[in-house]
Structures are given as structure tokens and as C-alpha cells.
Design a protein that fits this description.
Oligomer: heterodimer
Structural class of chain A: mainly alpha
Radius of gyration of chain A: 22 Å
Largest sheet of chain A: none
CATH class of the largest domain in chain B: Alpha Beta
Number of domains of chain A: 2
Largest interface: A-B, 24 and 36 residues
Mean pLDDT of chain B: 87
Strand content of chain B: 15-25%
Largest sheet of chain B: 6 strands, mixed
Helix content of chain A: over 70%
CATH architecture of the largest domain in chain A: Orthogonal Bundle
Strand order of the largest sheet of chain B: 6-7-8-3-9-10
CATH topology of the largest domain in chain A: ABC transporter involved in vitamin B12 uptake, BtuC
Mean pLDDT of chain A: 91
Distance between the termini of chain B: 54 Å
Distance between the termini of chain A: 18 Å
């Protein structure tokens, strides 16, 4: 018997958690002598009330959708892929090679090429931990964490020793050719009279992220592979009985997860900076974990959570710009959201379940 | 007349819309064994949890020795002299017997005085109730039967006068169960009061003084055991007449379907579980594998089902099947015409979080019949699932309900519907009625016989000797990875099979107790070595 209606589980609980996180954040802001209501208004104004604000929010959300989906897919196979960060970094390397060394006639082709490159590099970076988990039993959490550090070192090596233009002191590639310039939201949505999304980095990759959400949904709930991934995630012994190879599922789901994480760098590297820089991932790989947790590993949930975190990122930047609230505080707020939606889930869930049971009893009586 | 040891008056408990206990009253006389019988989900465990302070009753009163007693938590229950032996033991595996017994009942900050006290107390209890056990043995090295004794000792150490046992024989071998009953008998002689919760009619008939029957949260009857019969109790439990004996025609075995030669299995820990066995199963017959759990039957099924490695030869309809590496997996076995109802439906046969319809294709999900393009034909599968659930009388007949929300019997019916309806040449079936209620047992047995009568070969593994005897056309007994012998049901009896199950091939073992002890020794040795 279900303890409470489905909608309460997926809508009400995250909302209440969010509300609690907001209250606590307000108290923190109050404690440092600022006005929480003004801060909140500033965040909303800066992130949602202007098209340029939306341009930033959706740009961040694009990153979080990819990394959130990456974590979600691995979750379904009961694996905790903490290596999204490293996989995204390597994805960036893939994008750089595709953009720098292939003469693309048009951005659309370049986008396809760069996406494949990013996905492939990300997937390959996930393959090694996946193989070690499947064949040697090395725990995926440990190996993927370590692979983040290795990825950072690898990226550093390539940027300093291989891809850095001569005489440049900056560990970054040269700017990608013009033909690989992706249309930004400004390019796409501005008319002759009004300029929309001025200066904002959101670009066409956002739609690839949306497509990825839909495709992941199909993959997980409509295909044989998704069926096997979920079965394996729920019960390994059951999967073995059914003839589903644990090695195969472990490797394939991590490949998909790594590819999704890698795709993130199409947005940052090709869509925004148009060259590969050292810290292009900016911790989005880790935010992906929170996004997947909050989104309950469901692509639609991931989509909503990614937008929320995009809002927090952009709103936080606005706070740092216009108030005395330090930028670090936004990390505190984000951490509170993660704490409430991820770790303290049961704190909200249990009283709510009791409430629904009581309501139902009353209804029956 | 003395006051009843325990008396419940009008106990009611609801979980949301489910009325788990409805106005239940019982009264148990001291020094008796009172059985509570009912199908899974009838509310037995809820009632006992109320008595032990895990749940609070919505309504009703509890009297202990004539005094009204509130039991808000298990501490209060222990203080009131109630001890509980759970179906799944609550023991710390790597502690000794003594350490487990004092756990939670230590007298001070230092362990030594408590341990010394417990040691002398244990000696006393062992003498009084013939509950012999080595106080320094580590739990994980003990047999299941001995672990259960530790649970009983734990309760007695806490001065329990009323002992509640929840499905105590669920994990025991027949011999261990007999020993348990001897212990219970002894406890009764010493004046303890025992409440025995079970769904096995035989146990009720064997040991109880009175029995209460529960059905759907209500107490339908309380009768003296001497004045009732298994048939009558079954009828009270299920609410209709139940056929306890399986009706079947003689088998007409045909061609050989499965041949097993020199099969050996070494498990993940490197222990040889199956030590070279030969078997054949023919069309239209049921070969039953009897044996105490843990003697290699599970591994035999796993290898045949393709999810464990082995060496030797198996041939299916004359074709040799690989036993490890490529082609030794569940998918290949299904293609070879082998269907498998595994022993543990919750860990293997079903994905508990999956809906019924997802489970109805589990293992066959790659079949082209269930696809529509590159996607799975979910709507089609749901329709098929609905049909199968109707045919197998799965209740409730909702394909969209998660498997974990069905009762044990209905879960098993979902597995059976899936495996039987695929029209296999050979059905492997392990513990078909474990944790399944009486009404469903009847149905499941009928389905197995019907499949045999269609000319299919069936390999049945069960630790329930009754089940083996009533279903099988031939019986092979496994002990310590070997087949000790084959018998025909009509020409054997429980005693002979019991001896074979204990590894005794040569007559005569003068007294049964000796055999039983020998069997324990062997099991302990095996566990100790593993």
C-alpha cells in the first residue's frame, strides 16, 4: 500500500524541503546583518526578471542538466558516479580537439562533431572506473573521485604542454575558429527592435540538454536496456537470475553516464568561452549529484532541479555583485538546499506520511 | 481457576485503511502452549507486536496474570515477563553465546561480573530445561537450530514466563523442528506459557493445547487442539474447504529431457557444494530433490538455471549446455527450454520494486514478442500481464501494483505465471510454497501437477518433506553435495528419507536423537569450516 499519493512524494516533499532551506538561509543572512527579503528579491530580479538573467540561469541549468542526468543514469544501476567533474573535464578536451583540428563548414556540423567528441572522451574516462568495478570490484565511488584528480592533472598537462599556443602564458587553447561559434540565445531570439539575452552565455546547447532529458527518459523507462539497468540497480541477484550480465550493465551505464557528463563541456567550452580553459567545469560535476538527488533521478525532476540550481548560481552572483553578502554565502544556501532535499529527506517525509495516513483515516471514518 | 497467564480483550489496530487487528480477545492458561494460526497477512504478527510493545493498540486491554498491564515498549514487555523469539534472529553474529545473552541486560559498566553471572545462570537453565549449548561458541558458527536456542535462552535469562515464538520452524530442518518442540514441551512442563505463531497446521496439531485461528485481522475461532482436525483448521483459516492432499494420476514418464552427469559446483568462497551428482528427468515426471537446506540443492538449481558456474555435463534434450563462460546464463537457458522458479523469489525471481507487469516479462524481456521497434511494448506487456494474472488468480489483479505489495503467495503466482506460460520443456522449481499461504499452496501444487500432465519435465527442490512426498514421482535425497539415493514415494516414508537426509545410508540408526545430533555435528562442522 502506498503511504501517500504519488504527487505528494514528487512535488510536495521537495517544495517543503526547499521552503525549509529558504527559511534557514534567511536566518543566516539575517545573522550577518543583511535583509533576507531584499536579498531574495535581488536574486529573483537578477536571475529571473530580465532576459539576460534568464540567459545566465539557463546557461548554468544546461550544465547541471547534463551532470544531473549523468548521476541519475548511474543511480538507476545503483552506482554512485562522483566522477562527473573529471568526465566533463575530459569532455572539454574532446571538444577542443574536434573544434581545433577539424575544419568545420558550419556550426551545426561542428556541434554534432563536438558533442560526439565530448561524449566519447567523457565516456572513456568513465570506462576505466566502470571496468575496475565490474571486473575487479574496486568501488566506483573511490575510483571516480580519484579520477577527478587525475583528470585535472591530465587536462593541465594537455593545456600547458600540448594545446597552449606558442608564447602564450595562459594554460588554455587558442580561440576556436569562427565556424564553430554556436548561436547564443541573443543570436536566436533578438529581433531588429529589441535585443534579448544581452551578454548572456546561454546557447543552443540548452536544447541539446532538453533533448538529452527526453532521451534519457526513453532510455530508462521504455527500452530493454533501461529495463535491465533498473533491474540490476534494484537487485543484482535478480538480474543474474534473469540472465542480465552485471559486467555489461555496469560498463554500459557508466559509459552513458560519462558521456552525459562529458556533453556538459559543449556548453561551457564551445558555447561560452570558445576555447578550453583550465577550470571550465566550475564544480558543475558535483552540483549534478545534488540535482540528481533532488530530481529523484527522474529526467523531469533533474530538469526542474537544474533550473533551480541555475537560479541559485545566477542569483548568488547578483548578490555578490550588489550587496555585502559574500559570494561564499550562496554556497551556504546551496548546501542547505542539498542538505534538506537530499540528506534530510526523511525529516520531511515521515511527518507528511503520518499526516496523509491520518487524513485518510478521517476520510474513511 | 487460576488467572490466565495472559489475556487480551478487544484489541484493535489499524494501519491507515487496513484493519490489521479487529476486536481480538484471547486468554491463555499458564503452563500451556497456545497456537495462533492464520495465513500470511491475517494479523498474527501485528497482534504479537502489540503484545511486545512494538505497536500501540488503537483499542483494547492486556491483562498479565489477571492484572491490567500497559506495554508501551519492549522494555515493559520484558518487565512483564514476556519474551519473544523472532522469525529472524536478533543476534550479533560475531559475539559469543554468552555475550549475546547479556547484551542489553548487563549489570554494570564492567562486563566480567555480568558474564560470570550469566555463565552460572546459563548452566542452571541448561540443566532445568535441557537447553545445552556451549556458552563460548560464536553465533555465526552455530547451526540455525542452535541459534534459535540462544534466542530462547535470552528470553529465559530475562525471566520470561510467557514465550512468544513467531514462525519458529520457518528456518529449521525437520529434525531441528522436532528438537525445538521437545524443548517447548519441556518448558511447558516447567510451567512456562508459550504462544506459538505459525501457518503450519502440522505443528499446531503436534504441540499446542489450544489454538486460535485468525483470518483477515479477526479471530475466527479458538478451539481445543484435541477437538479439531487439520482440515477443520484449514477451513477456518481460508474460509472455505481446502484440499490438503494433492490429487494426481500416476506419472507416464517419456523421453529423457535433462541429463546431469558428474556435476560439481564450487561456490564463491571456494567450498565445494555439489560433489559430482548424476540425475535424469523425463518428460511427464516430477523429480523431487529432498534434503536439509544447505546441502547443495540451491547450487544445483543455480547451475541448471545458468547463474552459477559448475563442471561436469548437462544435456537438455540431448544437447550439451555450457556450465561456465559464454552461453552459461539465464538467457541461454531459457532459449534451451528451461524455465526456473527460483528458491528466493524476493531476491531472484522478482524485482520487488518493479510492477507486476514488469515482472511478468522478467528474464524474457528481450523476447521479440514484447518489443515494438526499438522500445519495449509496455502497453502490450500490460495487457499480457493482465491476462496471466487473471488466469493465475493473482490478487489483487492489478498489473501496475509493485511486486512488493503482493502477498507471498501472490508473488509466487506471478513468478509461476511467467515461467509456466512460456511453455518450457523443463521447469526448475525451488521451494514453491515457502512463505505461501494455504489457499495458494493448493493452487500452486495443482499448477505443477497440471504441467507434468502436459508432458513437461519438472525438477522440484523443497525442504518441506511433505511437499516432496506428495508431489514427486521420484525422490532423490541430497546430503553434503551428494545424492544419497533415489526412492519412489509409495515405497518410502519420512523416516527413511530423514535418515538419508542426515547422510545415513546404512540401517539401522537405533534412536532418532542420535541421528539428529550427528546431523547437527556435521552441519556445525561444515559451517565452522566455511
Amino acid at each position: 500500500m502506498e503511504k501517500m499519493p504519488h504527487w505528494a512524494d514528487i512535488v510536495l516533499i521537495p517544495l517543503i524541503s526547499l521552503f525549509l532551506a529558504a527559511i534557514l538561509s534567511a536566518l543566516v543572512i539575517l545573522a550577518i546583518g543583511e535583509n533576507p527579503w531584499a536579498a531574495f528579491k535581488l536574486m529573483v530580479d537578477g536571475a529571473l526578471m530580465r532576459s539576460s538573467g534568464w540567459g545566465y540561469t539557463l546557461y548554468y541549468a544546461t550544465n547541471f542538466m547534463f551532470t544531473g542526468l549523468a548521476v541519475a543514469v548511474a543511480f538507476h544501476a545503483r552506482m554512485f558516479n562522483i566522477g562527473g567533474e573529471g568526465q566533463a573535464m575530459l569532455g572539454g578536451l574532446g571538444v577542443a580537439y574536434v573544434c581545433l583540428f577539424i575544419p568545420w563548414p558550419h556550426w551545426s556540423l561542428a556541434l554534432i562533431g563536438a558533442s560526439l567528441g565530448a561524449a566519447m572522451f567523457g565516456a572513456l574516462w568513465a570506462l576505466i572506473p566502470a571496468y575496475l568495478q565490474a571486473k575487479r570490484g574496486s568501488h566506483i565511488v573511490i575510483t571516480t573521485i580519484m579520477f577527478n584528480f587525475i583528470a585535472a592533472a591530465v587536462l593541465n598537462y594537455f593545456l600547458v604542454n600540448v594545446l597552449r599556443p606558442p608564447r602564450s602564458m595562459d594554460p588554455a587553447t587558442k580561440t576556436f575558429p569562427d565556424a564553430t561559434h554556436l548561436p547564443s540565445f541573443r543570436d536566436m531570439f533578438s529581433t531588429a527592435e529589441t535585443i534579448m539575452f544581452r551578454g548572456a552565455p546561454a546557447n543552443v546547447t540548452f536544447f541539446i540538454a532538453l533533448a538529452a532529458c527526453v532521451l534519457v527518459w526513453f532510455l530508462i523507462w521504455r527500452t530493454k536496456l533501461g529495463y535491465e539497468i533498473r533491474a540490476f540497480g534494484h537487485s543484482e541477484s535478480g538480474a543474474k537470475y534473469a540472465g542480465i550480465s552485471p559486467v555489461r550493465i555496469t560498463v554500459i551505464s557508466m559509459l552513458i553516464s560519462g558521456a552525459l557528463a562529458g556533453l556538459m563541456s559543449v556548453n561551457t567550452t564551445m558555447g561560452e568561452s570558445e576555447r578550453l580553459v583550465l577550470n571550465s567545469t566550475e564544480g558543475a560535476g558535483f552540483i549534478g549529484i545534488a540535482v540528481a538527488l533532488m530530481g529523484r533521478s527522474h529526467p523531469f525532476g533533474v530538469f526542474l532541479a537544474a533550473i533551480l540550481f541555475g537560479f541559485l548560481y545566477q542569483g548568488g552572483a547578483e548578490l555578490a555583485l550588489w550587496t555585502n553578502i559574500p559570494r561564499e554565502l550562496i554556497v551556504v544556501i546551496q548546501a542547505l538546499v542539498i542538505l534538506f532535499t537530499g540528506a534530510l529527506d526523511n525529516m520531511v517525509r515521515m511527518p507528511l506520511e503520518k499526516l496523509f495516513l491520518a487524513l485518510r483515516k478521517k476520510g474513511d471514518a | 481457576m487460576t488467572a490466565p497467564a495472559i489475556e487480551l480483550k478487544g484489541i484493535s489496530k489499524a494501519f491507515g485503511p487496513v484493519q490489521a487487528n479487529k476486536d481480538i480477545s484471547i486468554s491463555v492458561q499458564p503452563g500451556t502452549i497456545h497456537g495462533i494460526i492464520g495465513e500470511n497477512g491475517a494479523g498474527k504478527s501485528t497482534l504479537m507486536s502489540i503484545l511486545y510493545g512494538f505497536y500501540k493498540a488503537d483499542k483494547g486491554e492486556i491483562f498479565i496474570k489477571g492484572q491490567k498491564t500497559a506495554i508501551p515498549d519492549s522494555q515493559a514487555a520484558i518487565a512483564a515477563g514476556i519474551g519473544m523469539v523472532f522469525q529472524h534472529f536478533k543476534l550479533v553474529e560475531n559475539f559469543t553465546v554468552l555475550e549475546n545473552i547479556i547484551l542489553g541486560a548487563e549489570d554494570g559498566a564492567l562486563l566480567r561480573p555480568s558474564l560470570a553471572k550469566a555463565r552460572s545462570e546459563l548452566k542452571h537453565l541448561a540443566q532445568e530445561y535441557e537447553l545445552n549449548i556451549d556458552p563460548d561458541a560464536v553465533i555465526e558458527n552455530l547451526s540455525v537450530g542452535h541459534q534459535q536456542r540462544v534466542e530462547i535462552l535470552k528470553a529465559l535469562y530475562r525471566r520470561a514466563e510467557i514465550l512468544i515464538l513467531d514462525e519458529p520452524t520457518g528456518v529449521l530442518t525437520p529434525a531441528e523442528a522436532d528438537q525445538l518442540f521437545r524443548i517447548l514441551d519441556r518448558l511447558r512442563e516447567e510451567g512456562k506459557t508459550i504462544i506459538l505463531i505459525t501457518h503450519k497446521l502440522r505443528e499446531i496439531m503436534e504441540i499446542t493445547n489450544t489454538v486460535s485461528v485468525m483470518r483477515r485481522g479477526e479471530m475466527t475461532a479458538t478451539v481445543k487442539t484435541s477437538e479439531t482436525s487439520p482440515e477443520h483448521l484449514a477451513e477456518l483459516m481460508v474460509g472455505r474447504k481446502v484440499l490438503l492432499r494433492v490429487d494426481k494420476k500416476p506419472a507416464t514418464p517419456g523421453d529423457v529431457v535433462l541429463e546431469v552427469e558428474g556435476l560439481r559446483v564450487i561456490d564463491e568462497k571456494g567450498v565445494e557444494r555439489v560433489k559430482g551428482i548424476d540425475l535424469t528427468v523425463r518428460k511427464g515426471e516430477i523429480l523431487g530433490i529432498a534434503g536439509v537446506a544447505g546441502n547443495g540443492q540451491s547450487e544445483l538449481l543455480e547451475v541448471l538455471g545458468g547463474f552459477a558456474d559448475g563442471t561436469g555435463t548437462i544435456r537438455m534434450n540431448g544437447v550439451t549446455l555450457p556450465l561456465m563462460g559464454k552461453g552459461a546464463d539465464g538467457q541461454s537457458r531459457r532459449h534451451a527450454g528451461i524455465a526456473h522458479v527460483p528458491e528466493d523469489r524476493q531476491r531472484e525471481g522478482l524485482i520487488m520494486e518493479y510492477t507486476a507487469w514488469e515482472n511478468v516479462v522478467f528474464g524474457y524481456h528481450l523476447d521479440p514478442e514484447y518489443q515494438s521497434g526499438i522500445l519495449m511494448d509496455n502497453a502490450g506487456i500490460q495487457a499480457i500481464a493482465q491476462e496471466k494474472m487473471d488466469r493465475f488468480d493473482v490478487r489483487p489483479p492489478h498489473p501496475k501494483l509493485a511486486a512488493k505489495n503482493f502477498s507471498g503467495g501472490n508473488q509466487q503466482k506471478i513468478v509461476l505465471a511467467r515461467e509456466i506460460e512460456r511453455n518450457p520443456d523443463l521447469l526448475l522449481i525451488g521451494q514453491p510454497t515457502r512463505g505461501v499461504d494455504i489457499g495458494a499452496i493448493e493452487f500452486i501444487h495443482q499448477q505443477i501437477i497440471a504441467l507434468r500432465d502436459q508432458g513437461k519435465a519438472i525438477l522440484l527442490v523443497s525442504v518441506e518433506l511433505d511437499e516432496i512426498l506428495s508431489l514427486s514421482d521420484r525422490i532423490a535425497v541430497m546430503f553434503d553435495g551428494h545424492i544419497m539415493g533415489e526412492r519412489v514415494p509409495d515405497q518410502t516414508n519420512e523416516k527413511e528419507l530423514g535418515l538419508l537426509m542426515a547422510g545415513v545410508t546404512q540401517e539401522p540408526a537405533a534412536d532418532a536423537a542420535k541421528v539428529v545430533d550427528q546431523q547437527f555435528a556435521l552441519q556445525d562442522e561444515e559451517r565452522g569450516g566455511a
